[in-house]
DNA sequence: TTGTATGCGTTATCAC
DNA sequence: GTGATAACGCATACAA
């Protein structure tokens, strides 16, 4: 069985394709009687228009692309879920691609999506993205896009982010207020903007409280195995600093959980001997023991904001106006649990 | 800037569209000189063919659909990741939809995808799907699809599943061998095939070891808040049976983790006083304390199998052959950790 | 070796 | 109120 087409409907009814089309679209210049016949038959035959033909004709696809570094990730999958839900409710479909933190792949995927003719794109950059010709290309072709979470500040586009610096600042300030003095930081690689900003927030909080920054307390965890990295660096830290460190602020929850894992296995009490503060508020962080204090970063809210901004941009483009290039900053808050 | 078309290339070169098209497709009946000119110009102008036009012309879209009950879920997101990766490597795009365990939505999404003209579909049914006209419709329109994980046995299609019954049987048998005698079961709702089969495996293992099935030890957890459900039913169980129960086998890890949470908060020692055996091997299960024994169910492997079978079906259809309707059973194994 | 013509399914313009 | 017809961009059978 093949999908029924306008032509077949028209033939069956003994009228022209044009009339059928107009009847379906509710044009006023078609007689009620004809409209009724058309509607009945299309209903009966379960007609649904061919998307490719519409895309070709109307030059839009009603689909948007989403490129994300990793899908199996509590935060990102929440983002994706929100995007898909809202897109679906507006009859947009979403094509999901995973860059795998691989810049070349990311570039290829943008091109793929471009040739596919998506109506818009939501993208979170890989950790290794340092050139932006692929994003420029989107601009050249006038494809609306919004960067989320891991963004490039120098590319002009709409953005949805959290204020990483401020969030980190707040977390570390909280630790200091609580009386912790020697606070280590487990950061990610040198490149991702997130990692930089969270580090900067950490640094600023120390400065503002007259605690000198000790570079030997900053551990770079960048081999993409966060849990193991957390264990590894916790061990390293204890070797290098004994039990003098009284708190750690980690760039994400997984690293924190790895560290907690190490401390528990080595009978180091949390938070008595060392406090641990994470970042993201993964579901997991409320389930492990001790429950992790962390920065709450809500994926659903970010996803929702992203798709809404994207729709605004699409709307805007349709109206012939220039891109909005707005930046939405999502609120974060501190979730204090047992680990601090 | 608009994407360049064949027509423009042809005009620029002073040749016909047909020749350009053929040159690009590597047909032999075009002179090397012409081909070279075409290739150079398309390269320079960054030509990439319009997907809608190709879809319309060739009656395929090079995209497949995926419908999943919940995206934010370790197992399913692993499945999705694997599907996307392999699809991407074969230049197929994937449209992802979430049914949210909602049957009406699932139906609507199948129709949406159908009118979109996907080349194939991978679907995992919602817990509330009990009629299958939407799947039949896929068959009517001859759209290859494969059911995964949560499937309907009565719908004929390719399937990728695990042997839930056997896996559950093995888990419970292990518990019995270990000496546990009064083994409770936290199951999911009455409908999903998974839940039924795991229950059946549990039951069979008891029978084969001459342990009478005690219906009061089977708890139905079906309000979609697994962690809380685990806590709630653990409490209920203790109230009803005191400390006479010495093990629980749960239909998924989240439920197990909820139960563990309750036991720890109430100073019930695991596994000394009660053992807990989960199902799925979520990442989390190796990170909590005590580490959870569980059935390992690998999402990547299932995703990979699903997309490969789907491609086989697509290939098959293209060759004009009838659907394969093959069933792939993915191996599971027991991961024994600290909770048993 | 190249070009012409046709059709994929739909929409929109314009004539009737 | 209805119907040809062209166009969207591409691929292909056939003619030249």
Give a verbal description of the structure:
Chain A is an alpha/beta fold and 340 residues long. Chain A has 3 domains: 6-49, Orthogonal Bundle (434 Repressor (Amino-terminal Domain)); 61-162 and 299-330, 3-Layer(aba) Sandwich (Rossmann fold); 164-296, Rossmann fold, CATH 3.40.50. In chain A, 46% of the residues lie in helices and 15% in strands. Chain A is built from 12 helices and 12 strands. Chain A has helices spanning 6-13, 17-24, 32-45, 51-58, 74-89, 103-116, 133-140, 164-177, 193-208, 226-241, 253-265, 299-318; strands spanning 63-68, 93-98, 120-123, 145-148, 158-162, 183-187, 218-220, 247-250, 275-277, 294-296, 327-330, 333-335. In chain A, strands 2-1-3-4-5-11 form a 6-stranded parallel β-sheet, with helices on both faces. Chain A has a 4-stranded parallel β-sheet with strand order 7-6-8-9, with helices on both faces. The first copy, chain A, has a two-stranded antiparallel sheet with strand order 10-12. In chain A, strand 8, helix 11 and strand 9 (275-277) form a beta-alpha-beta unit. In chain A, helix 2 (17-24) crosses helix 3 (32-45), helix 5 packs across helix 12 (299-318) and helix 10 packs across helix 11 (253-265). Chain A is elongated and about 90 Å long. Chain A starts with 5 loop residues before the first helix and ends in a 5-residue tail after the last strand. The model of chain A has no long low-confidence stretch (mean pLDDT 95). Chains A and B meet through helix 4, helix 5, strand 2, helix 6 and helix 11 of A and helix 4, helix 5, strand 2, helix 6 and helix 11 of B. The first copy, chain A, binds a DNA duplex (16 and 16 nucleotides) through residues 5-7, 15-19, 21-22, 25, 29-31, 34, 49-50, 52-59.
């Amino acid at each position: 069985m093949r999908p029924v087409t306008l032509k077949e409907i028209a033939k069956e009814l003994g009228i022209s394709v044009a009339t059928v089309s107009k009847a379906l679209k509710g044009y006023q210049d078609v007689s009620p009687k004809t409209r009724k016949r058309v509607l009945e038959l299309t209903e009966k035959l379960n007609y649904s228009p061919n998307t490719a033909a519409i895309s070709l004709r109307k030059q839009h696809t009603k689909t948007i692309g989403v490129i994300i570094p990793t899908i199996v990730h509590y935060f990102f999958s929440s983002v994706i879920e929100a995007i898909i839900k809202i897109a679906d409710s507006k009859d947009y479909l979403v094509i999901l691609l995973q860059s795998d933190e691989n810049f070349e792949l990311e570039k290829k995927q943008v091109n793929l999506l471009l040739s596919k003719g998506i109506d818009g794109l939501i993208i979170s950059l890989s950790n290794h993205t340092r050139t932006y010709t692929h994003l420029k290309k989107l601009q050249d072709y006038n494809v609306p896009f919004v960067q989320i979470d891991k963004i490039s500040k120098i590319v002009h586009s709409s953005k949805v982010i959290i204020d990483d610096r401020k969030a980190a600042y707040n977390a570390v300030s909280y630790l200091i207020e609580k009386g912790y003095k020697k606070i280590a930081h487990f950061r990610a690689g040198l490149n991702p903007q997130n990692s930089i900003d969270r580090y900067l927030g950490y640094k600023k909080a120390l400065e503002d409280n007259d605690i000198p920054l000790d570079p030997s307390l900053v551990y770079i965890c960048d081999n993409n195995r966060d849990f193991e990295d957390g264990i590894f660096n916790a061990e390293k830290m204890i070797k290098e600093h004994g039990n003098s460190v009284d708190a750690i602020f980690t760039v994400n929850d997984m690293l924190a959980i790895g560290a907690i894992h190490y401390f528990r296995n080595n009978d180091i009490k949390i938070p008595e001997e060392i406090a641990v503060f994470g970042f993201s508020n993964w579901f997991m962080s409320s389930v492990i023991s001790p429950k992790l204090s962390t920065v709450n970063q809500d994926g659903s809210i970010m996803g929702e904001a992203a798709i809404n901004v994207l729709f605004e941009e699409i709307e805007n483009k349709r109206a012939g106006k220039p891109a909005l290039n707005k930046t939405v900053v999502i609120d974060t808050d501190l979730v204090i649990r047992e680990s601090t």
